[in-house]
Amino acid sequence: MGTPVNIIVGSHVWVEDPEIAWIDGEVTEINGSNATIITSNGRTVVAEISSIYPKDTEAPPAGVDDMTKLAYLHEPGVLHNLAIRFSLNEIYTYTGNILIAVNPFRRLPHLYDIHMMQQYKGAAFGELSPHLFAVADTCYRAMINENGSQSILVSGESGAGKTETTKMLMRYLAFMGGRSGTEGRTVEQQVLESNPVLEAFGNAKTVKNNNSSRFGKFVEIQFDKNGKISGAAIRTYLLERSRVCQVSDPERNYHCFYMLCSAPPEDVKKYKLGDPKQFHYLNQSNCYQVSNVDDAKEYLETRNAMDIVGINQEEQDAIFRVVAAILHLGNIEFVKGNEVDSSKLKNEKSVFHLRTAAELCDEKALEDSLCKRVIVTPDGNITKPLDPDAASLSRDALAKTVYSRLFDWIVDKINSSIGQDSNAVSIIGVLDIYGFESFKINR
Length: 443
What we know:
Blueprint: E1 12-17, E2 21-31, E3 34-39, E4 44-48, E5 53-54, H1 75-87, E6 92-95, E7 98-101, H2 114-120, H3 132-146, E8 150-154, H4 162-177, H5 187-193, H6 195-202, E9 203-204, E10 212-213, E11 216-223, E12 229-237, H7 255-261, H8 265-270, H9 295-308, H10 313-330, E13 334-336, E14 343-345, H11 348-358, H12 363-371, E15 372-377, E16 380-385, H13 388-418, E17 426-432
Parallel strand pairs: 8-17
Antiparallel strand pairs: 1-2, 1-5, 2-3, 3-4, 6-7, 9-10, 11-12, 11-17, 13-14, 15-16
């Protein structure tokens, strides 16, 4: 932070700008705690000295590949360096052993081909240009040389590219760890093939990202004593359960709901579905489609991905029955009942949705569980009626719990398909941490 000591007349500084965050300029006058600055675009700005930062006038014009080399490691200095490198198509920059990636929002296949992997194999960290593969290579060699497990943390805002980064890291580890067997699909192929299934049930459109992971994922790549991949496991956590019942504009609920509503006519009829606008859990937002995404095609691709990861047709049918039941559950409405603080189903439409949801269980038991609650006492159980608001909360709680259990079941099924090595000597864990979004108001 700039202080009265190091900011003088003639100092080159960074000052906040409403348009481009920070702009550079020269201090022309200091008056008490304020400085007058002529910016590089010719504007005159008066700012508090405590809010301006010194600029490194000797920094290389092409930026530095490791930001620990910067004279000042402050926000404007870091952002300026990243912007310069990005303009030169350099999307990766180090800060010590941390790799910062700036999402180019386009495919750069040459950056991740086999030739690039061979270049980084065994190269000392920092010897070549900053790259994802350098981090993965250092991690793999540390595991081999130190006989200890390692972890790579992938963190950033929603849409920053964490999930794609995780895929690339796994590809490099597969390149280094060789093949665990020549027959059938390799472990890393199976992990990557599970992505479409996890994304269908764990990803959603948010304000900044059309395919945002709304859960955390820790992928354990397991290695044998020869450093070869011998198994894998996917651990998931912090699924955003609230999204099942509550969606704000212009976001969407989980992809699987829209896929199922766009399924072939025979499936739509079987699950008694239709236009997403008819369902309370989907119509709280006016966003039903995602640009460049065909939900009907995604449904068929998800079914295909389920086949690949070992979820059979009967299990797939059960999964989508649960997804459909949750949508019907959301359309059950309540009104005041005949007794005080009691509730009953609002109309025939609510009865239809209750019956459809209840095809998975017992209709009367489901109605009672929504409209009443049981209090366990030493003298026995007391059944207490719930008012319409409490019944609606009970309905939403059930929907969230069922969806969460379904997601956990799918993950367990994928893990049993991939195959875990209980005798693994060491693991490399890749943590794709939940993507948060930064707004002025963020609830």
